[in-house]
Amino acid sequence: MKQHNEYQSYLGIPPLAGLCSMxxxxxxxxxxxxxxxxxxRLHYVLKRLHEMLTERITAEPIYELKTAFSYxxxxxAEQVTLLRRRVGEMREPPLGLESVPDPALARxxxxxxxxxxxxxxxxxxxxVVVPAVLQACDRIRSDAHPLADAPTxxxxxxxxxxxxxxxxxxxxxxxxxDDESLIAERQPWIDYLRxxxxxxGEIDGVQAxxxxxxxxxxxxxxxxxxxxxxxxxxxxxxxxxxxxPEAFLYDxxxxxxxxxxxxxxxxxxxxxxxxxxxxxxxxxxxxxPWEFHLEMSRQLWDExxxxxxxxxxxxxxxxxWRQIPINFTWSRNLNLQLNARERHGVLFFIxxxxxxxxxxxxxxxxxNESGDPLSAVFQDFDWADExxxxxxxxxxxxxRYESLKDALSYGxxxxxxxxxxxxxxxxxxxxxxxxxxxxxxSQACIGWDKDPDPRALVFCxxxxxxxxxxxxxx
Length: 474
Hints:
This protein starts with 21 loop residues before the first helix and ends in a 17-residue tail after the last helix. The protein has two domains: 29-220, Ferritin, CATH 1.20.1260; 245-457. It has helices at 22-25, 32-57, 63-88, 103-113, 118-143, 150-177, 180-199, 245-249, 256-269, 272-283, 290-316, 329-337, 340-353, 360-370, 373-396, 404-417, 422-427, 437-448, 454-457. It has 474 residues and is mainly α.
């Protein structure tokens, strides 16, 4: 009988669908239980990463981090879904995915969640936890039977591919935010986190020692979610609601090119949607199934993308967006005045109102008419995203009500409950609701090499008496 290392496939074509050599395939040192154990531990860590990244979005003032956390939380949600699906394929009803697999892993994730500063959080996530997850994925790819457990190997490969880039982002961000004193001050805690991983026998438990986790450090005080949105110093005059872009956009007297500038403003202002949606996900964490969190995380990330589209649009026009008051009172007022279900109602009501011809299709038509190809691309995909978001709302919001009409009425009523504080913010000296539009419009006209339209130049409608859907504030 020939030895397996002498095995010959037909014409030398790679055997076993290219998964591995025959010499590797005859090794039987793997089991379904071993695979399940490692996958469940990965699931726990990635789900906690998703949760803590989402928690940070609202109150994180730095725009680049706010949008990155939105993206990275979504990526983690996709990996969690891969893992849940794979575990469900492996004779595992019930799946047991909500159990804590190891107290040392729980201590590790609690500590990172309770990081006292943003640089500490970045270091914990991107220099400790994510690299340990990648190492666990590498070990699965090396240890799992490449034929019998090929689906698990694929999952590990996909996770490594998708979240590997997070390490590069985190390292680059830390490099800009850190100095030697901060690094030295933080090092004992970083060593502590690695002690937690050692006590857990690594993320995947392959080197279990049976040691108890070290006592809590920052997690002595449990993490408390902060639902008040914050912005960095570039967002000057954030209470300003002195320009109503929807009123300009739907006025037939203004040109498509001029409306494109206002649409870029509408896009970058969508930064307030992730700030608000994060609060829904945090506050409904125990009340909705995982599939709800997956789809809402995708929508949250899309809204962050839309904000960045607006940023890119202003850069393309040579306009410094930091001159423009990017208002945040929509997310602030909803987060501080409504509960999570009411906020979801407002979100659904707005998304559904973007579906008629006067909504996202209209914005796309304006962008195409404007002669600005970048705006046309952005509005094309923005429209597609919003169609998806409307479907997500119909799956997860509408079934709570007797009819679509009732669901919409509730969302409208919730929005009407929100006090805009337009006059109050002015009277407190938080803003004068300065009309920034003529200055920015004039700059755009220089870039377009045209004279400003006198009618557009004097546009001065505000949000004092109207919502973004142009309904009167009651």
